[in-house]
Design goal:
Elements lengths: L5 H9 L5 E3 L2 E3 L9 H12 L6 H7 E4 L4 E4 L8 H18 L6 H21 L3 H15 L3 E4 L22 E6 L2 E12 L6 E4 L14 E6 L5 E5 L25 E12 L3 E4 L2 H41 L5 H26 L2 E2 L5 E2 L2 H11 L2 H13 L9 H5 L3 H8 L8 H15 L4 H10 L4 H11 L2 H12 L3
Parallel strand pairs: 5-8
Antiparallel strand pairs: 1-2, 3-4, 6-7, 7-11, 8-9, 9-12, 10-11, 13-14
Helix pairs in contact: 1-2, 4-7, 4-8, 5-6, 5-7, 7-8, 7-9, 7-10, 7-13, 8-9, 8-10, 9-15, 10-13
Bound molecules: iron/sulfur cluster and fe (iii) ion (FE).
Iron/sulfur cluster binds next to helix 5, helix 7 and helix 14.
Length: about 475
């Protein structure tokens, strides 16, 4: 049953009866929980896009899959062309500016494309049969239109030590037992985006493994309600505002992100769900490919959220009565310039993509890394400019409770009035949205994740250094100057 609606998605995830530890309590009704519900609503947008009223939007989300031979949601697609890669980024921008937050579903799509090509390469070199297994698994994902969490980031313990040299070897997720029907794993994955909104988790190694580290070179998938998996909900800045009534202080009244510490305590994985098991060189290749796809993703999603921040900033300038000031106009132009530069990078690495040996399409690695390195900087500058234009009220506004209070409410409305025609409560709404993105719960994805998601800036610098073609550039100069 391909192409679920958002509502059907929500029903399907409820059926998994996931349980999580949220702020000291064990929660079972996650769909109704104030901290979780906005994040589920954001994922639902990735489903509703496939049923959008306008045909152009539907065309972004719907694509024919040669794998399952049906029309599928692009979030489950294995890219077949550079046009697919471009559409992926465009779809992510759409989801970003519709939700104004992280909509969580990209990680599984990026993991799948990396696992698809890496299992093909591994089988060709090692005689394994992971690719066929993965194809069977992913056919099911496409047909059922599921959310898959791609899980890569291990806790890593002492950063100066290899996995096998850690005092606690579980600090990198590993195989602890091998049985005739499969393996047993222990470890954890941190910062898992949308984990409790996913039907399945696709686990990958966190880095390239070396000799003696075969137990850590493991890639597999299990349903999220598999026994032995424990979820500990991550806090976001000002997150308890999501639990407040009235909801005005939330900033983003409808949507939000989700990050979860996920513990694997002796989780059994059957053979047919294992896609890498000790083939050391392919662990590094998988990490590099996943990272590059996810670095491309940020050229779409962060740009969409940037659209929301720019729109809110322009609106507050108008409400403040300063929209015509030349320095405000110039700062807004700067914000647009930065945001569109990120989009240009996302589109460029897509348009310059190429086919892998497995047949799916991969982005241009150098340009994807340039894209993400810009993402580690530009949203911060956009946030700085938004804060500048919004004014100090951004950090000092009275609460929604005081706005409702018959004594204080009239004062707040009287003294927060600005440009004629701008309702003071609407002005507060816009300021709260900006606050959400630059300093509130939305800043987790828009700023902190822009820095560290898909690897910190140094990881991109290493890749850029490797792929920047310095030798070739020097050779060109030698030719130009006739230097032997
Ligand atoms: Fe998708 Fe962006 Fe969220 Fe990553 S941060 S899951 S790319 S929306
Ligand atoms: Fe991410």
């Amino acid at each position: 049953m391909a192409l679920k609606t958002g509502r059907e998605y929500q029903q399907s995830i409820e059926k998994l009866a996931l349980e999580a530890h949220v702020m000291g309590r064990t929660e079972t009704q996650l769909g109704d929980h104030g901290l979780v519900q906005p994040s589920r609503a954001a994922v639902a947008v990735t489903y509703d896009g496939a049923h959008a009223e306008d045909a152009a939007t539907r065309a972004l989300f719907r694509v024919h899959s040669p794998l399952c031979k049906e029309e599928v949601n692009r979030f489950t697609h294995l890219h077949r062309s550079t046009d697919d890669l471009v559409k992926k980024v465009t779809m992510q921008r759409y989801c970003g500016h519709t939700t104004g937050c992280c909509f969580q579903r990209c990680v599984g799509m990026d993991a799948a494309n990396a696992v698809y090509s890496t299992t093909f390469d591994c089988d060709a070199a090692c005689g394994t049969d992971y690719h066929a297994r993965f194809n069977a698994y992913w056919t099911m994902i496409q047909k059922d239109d599921l959310v898959v969490d791609g899980a890569m980031t291990d806790p890593k313990g002492d950063r100066g030590k290899r996995p096998k040299d850690q005092k606690d070897p579980d600090l990198f997720l590993r195989v602890v037992d091998r049985k005739p029907e499969g393996v047993v794993v222990c470890g954890a994955k941190l910062h898992q985006t949308g984990m409790l909104n996913a039907h399945e988790v696709l686990v990958m190694p966190t880095m390239g493994m070396r000799e003696g580290e075969a137990d850590w070179a493991i890639c597999f998938a299990v349903p999220t309600n598999t026994p032995g998996i424990r979820y500990i909900y991550g806090r976001q800045t000002s997150d308890t505002r999501k639990l407040e009534t009235p909801s005005l202080d939330m900033g983003n009244p409808r949507y939000g992100g989700q990050e979860v510490m996920t513990v694997f305590d002796h989780v059994f994985v059957p053979h047919e769900r294992i896609f890498l098991n000790g083939e050391l060189p392919y662990s590094g290749r998988l990490v590099e490919r996943f990272a590059a796809y996810h670095r491309q993703s940020y050229g779409g999603c962060k740009v969409g959220v940037g659209d929301v921040l720019i729109g809110a900033t322009a609106l507050i300038a108008r409400m403040n009565g300063v929209a015509q000031a030349s320095h405000i106009k110039d700062k807004l132009v700067e914000m647009i310039h930065l945001n569109e530069t990120l989009f240009a990078c996302g589109i460029a690495c897509s348009a310059m993509g190429h086919a892998t040996a497995a047949g799916n399409f991969e982005i241009d690695m150098l340009l994807a890394n340039v894209c993400k390195l810009n993402v580690t900087r530009f949203p911060y500058e956009l946030a700085r400019l938004a804060t500048d234009i919004a004014g100090g009220l951004l950090g000092t506004m009275p609460s929604a409770h005081d706005l409702e209070d018959p004594v204080t409410g009239p004062y707040i409305k009287k003294y927060l009035a600005a440009a004629e025609g701008a309702d003071p409560v609407d002005r507060i709404k816009v300021l709260r949205l900006i606050e959400n993105l630059v300093a509130g719960s939305g800043a987790v994805a828009y700023l902190i994740e822009s820095m560290h998601g898909a690897g910190p800036p140094m990881a991109q610098r290493i890749m850029i250094g490797r792929q920047g073609g310095l030798e070739e550039k020097m050779a060109r100069v030698r030719t130009l100057l006739k230097i032997p």
